[in-house]
Amino acid sequence: MYGLYTILAALFSFLILKWMKRRRYCLDTKRLDGKTVLITGGNSGIGKETAVGLALRGARVIIASRDEDKSRKAVREIKARSHSMNVLYMELDLANMKSVREFCKSFLQKEKRLDILINNAAMPSVLDWTDDNFSMCFGVNHLGHFLLTNLLLPRLKESSPSRVITLTCSNYKYQKLNFQDLNYNLFPFFTYCRSKLANIYFTQELARMMEGKKVTAYAVHPGYVQSNWTCHYSFLFQMLMKVIMFMFYVSCEAGAQTVIHCAVADEVVAHSGGYFSDCRPANLQAFAKDAGVAKKLWEASERLVKLA
């Protein structure tokens, strides 16, 4: 009898875990032939799976990241899995504003189109600083992508209708922005939450500014994903998180589905500035929909990155 209870308990636990890890998959098969996609941090995790999904649809996919060896290896894998040779790598360090500017200058010289920009790269909760003395989370997750997107906007407008997709996280709800200290770096997890909230405000203000210009913007929560973000932490923490991620987190392929959906689906155009999760629009906390805060953050970000 106890054996039967054990089996039933194990089966129940298994079903609960499967239910918690359920995700919708993008079923839209629209082709992207002739389209150019730029993915930051596309050499691993969600970014790499997104690259595979969009290359399979015929897009020209450009991986932008700072680790050349890892990126070139990723490019070879993406080509093999997608059966597309139209995948390439360009060097970009989002923790260095000079690198962002140099990358954009090179991109605009070499590439005649930019149809989809995917701001995927992100730093987890680390107590560190960028080359420009911004907290690593805020500097990479928000400011680096803010400058990148603004410098590439001319090409996005020329290639319209075009899209900007920025990955965020549902952890945004645990913090609010403090304009007296946007560079907050006392508690790394809180800094990460603020950077993800900034991604949402950025998306909303970008959508507002691009109204009528056929450039749409979306913030995506991919879910909690079994990616390699733990590499920034101790071995013991990595081992602990491997167990937790195996039990509760979804695969990188599953995590990429909402990004792919926002890149290809026609119905998302009506939700420019929106927040998406599990391949559909999702609700935000009321404070995360404040247009005044979004505009204020945009103006502060312009000053911080010295954007004329």
UniProtKB/TrEMBL annotation:
User: Which Pfam families does the annotation name?
Assistant: adh_short
Under InterPro entries, the record lists: NAD(P)-bd_dom_sf (IPR036291), SDR_fam (IPR002347)
- Give UniProt keywords alphabetically: Oxidoreductase
Keyword Iron attributed? no
According to the UniProt entry, its GO molecular function terms are: oxidoreductase activity
- List, alphabetically, the SUPFAM superfamilies matched: NAD(P)-binding Rossmann-fold domains
Its family remark reads: Belongs to the short-chain dehydrogenases/reductases (SDR) family.
- The entry's protein name is Si:dkey-174n20.1
Q: Taxonomically, what lineage is the organism? A: Eukaryota, Metazoa, Chordata, Craniata, Vertebrata
